[in-house]
């Protein structure tokens, strides 16, 4: 199937950017759609890493303020996994290791690729690359991490897999990266 970009404008560009596209695409029934307009949130690609201790069956979760959840009844502090945006010249594996150190104070040697996915393809170009990092969490100091230059205030915690999955079932974990990673863990490890 084919599509056409009839027009593209960028009315907003700061930390993030929004492009406005005018499209047409082929229809499943044949022919072409009428031209239509969509605003696309250009977020860039990101990497997330599930840090899991396979010996003790624990996971590392990070908690931080998320502006997009400002109206959530539980508040805008979300339980997540380590993640960050890919910067120019970095490999996805570099990002996973950098973010694990910045957000959780740990070094990850071996990474296993899980999958790429679009968390919201209806309105964003963001592609997430999800990784698994087996790590000894028993000696890791939990606490406050993150880069002040990025306004990060990240609290880490280590919980059992069962506790993480209970939080997931109870709706306490609402961040898509953590949901997908924990469901993957439940199915695969």
TrEMBL record:
Its cofactor is Mg(2+). Coiled coil: none annotated. CDD domains: NUDIX_ADPRase (cd24155). The keyword Hydrolase applies. It catalyses: ADP-D-ribose + H2O = D-ribose 5-phosphate + AMP + 2 H(+). It is an enzyme of class 3 (hydrolase). InterPro entries: NDP_pyrophosphatase, NUDIX_hydrolase-like_dom_sf, NUDIX_hydrolase_CS, NUDIX_hydrolase_dom. Residues 42-181 form the Nudix hydrolase domain. It comes from the Bacteria. Keywords: Hydrolase, Magnesium, Metal-binding. Mg(2+) binds at residues 83, 99, 103, 152. One of its GO terms (biological process) is ribose phosphate metabolic process. One of its GO terms (cellular component) is cytosol. Its EC number is 3.6.1.13. One of its GO terms (molecular function) is ADP-sugar diphosphatase activity. Belongs to the Nudix hydrolase family. NudF subfamily. NCBIfam families: nudix-type nucleoside diphosphatase, YffH/AdpP family (TIGR00052). Acts on ADP-mannose and ADP-glucose as well as ADP-ribose. Prevents glycogen biosynthesis. The reaction catalyzed by this enzyme is a limiting step of the gluconeogenic process. This is ADP-ribose pyrophosphatase.
């Amino acid at each position: 199937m084919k599509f056409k970009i009839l027009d593209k404008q960028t009315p907003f560009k700061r930390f993030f950017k929004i492009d406005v596209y005018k499209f047409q695409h082929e229809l499943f029934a044949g022919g072409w759609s009428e031209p239509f307009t969509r605003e696309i949130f250009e977020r860039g690609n990101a990497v997330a890493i599930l840090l899991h201790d396979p010996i003790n069956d624990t996971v590392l979760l990070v908690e931080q303020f998320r502006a997009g959840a400002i109206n959530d009844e539980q508040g805008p502090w979300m339980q997540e996994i380590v993640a960050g945006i890919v910067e120019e010249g970095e490999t996805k594996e570099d990002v996973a290791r950098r973010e694990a150190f910045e957000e959780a104070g740990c070094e990850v040697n071996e990474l296993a690729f899980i999958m790429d996915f679009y968390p919201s393809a209806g309105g964003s170009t963001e592609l997430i690359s999800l990784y698994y990092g087996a790590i000894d969490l028993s000696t890791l100091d939990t606490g406050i991490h993150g880069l002040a230059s990025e306004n990060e205030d990240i609290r880490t915690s280590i919980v059992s897999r069962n506790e993480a999955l209970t939080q997931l079932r109870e709706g306490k974990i609402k961040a898509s990266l953590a949901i997908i990673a924990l469901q993957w863990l439940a199915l695969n490890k």
